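Hi team,

As requested, here is the filled-out complex form for the magnesium ion run. I kept the field names the same as last time so the parser does not choke. Let me know if anything looks off before we queue the next batch.

— J.
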Amino acid sequence: MNLNQETIQKLAEHLENAELQAFDVVKITGDYPDMDWEDAYAIQNEILRRKLARGSKVVGLKAGLTSFAKMKQMGVTTPVFGFLVDYFSVPDGGEIKHSELIHPKVEPEIVFVTKKALKGPGCHIGAVLAATDFVMPGIEIIDSRYRDFKFDLKSVIADNCSSSRFVLGGQMTPVDGIDLRTLGVVMEKNGEPVAIGAGAAVLGHPATAIAALANHLAQYGEEIPAGTMILSGGATEAVSVAPGDNVTLRIQTLGSCSCRFV
Ligand code: OOG
Ligand code: MG
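And here is what came back:
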């Protein structure tokens, strides 16, 4: 760690205020070039601590930048991990107030729900599939607090990986007998397909993203508890949305979910 506790608290407050009041900021590594990975996750954890102190509850976890399309779009090469709290959750078919966000984008995700704990190091897709209760489609609404979505990995980790809202829907589908790599993914905006992919776009197999999360948490002596909902990462590039847009995600076999920006 290169930042002291006071700086970590100050940066967490800065980024969380940007989220809560919907204004953008410049990436924090500009002023703190010595910030390391531990500092970045410490800032994210401090944002979580602030939310929990205000009564928010953790309702899931996420992996991000897990597909080549996303890595290329954002100019980075490593997955990142974040948390999801209660007020991020939007019901299937629900409305999202665009004015509460800065410059939201949507991305199509395969969502896992676990029935057994997953503990790294050495967690692999076999363990993930054995511990998966079911998978379902999810639209993640990301909203980087950084101006024009311009960031580096440390800045985006500190900003809880651009997390802002998510929508789950479709069918709870057990993974037995389905190949998550070949599931077709189609995201539509106002009825037009705007992003098309397949499960394998996410690290070759979306369960790899969940294994990577378990292995990441192992560094802190933590695990993914049974019953955790996890977004495995956008399978395609993220797509910008404006007020009035309707977004539907259809994933082969898993069904569909949708949301509307107002
Ligand atoms: C970072 C968040 C990435 C994903 O699924 O790749 C993410 C960003 O692109 O702003 O959630
Ligand atoms: Mg995502």
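Two things worth flagging: The radius of gyration is 17 Å. Residues 62, 64, 107, 109, 140, 142, 231, 233-234 surround magnesium ion (ligand 2) (CB under 6 Å).

Thanks,
J.
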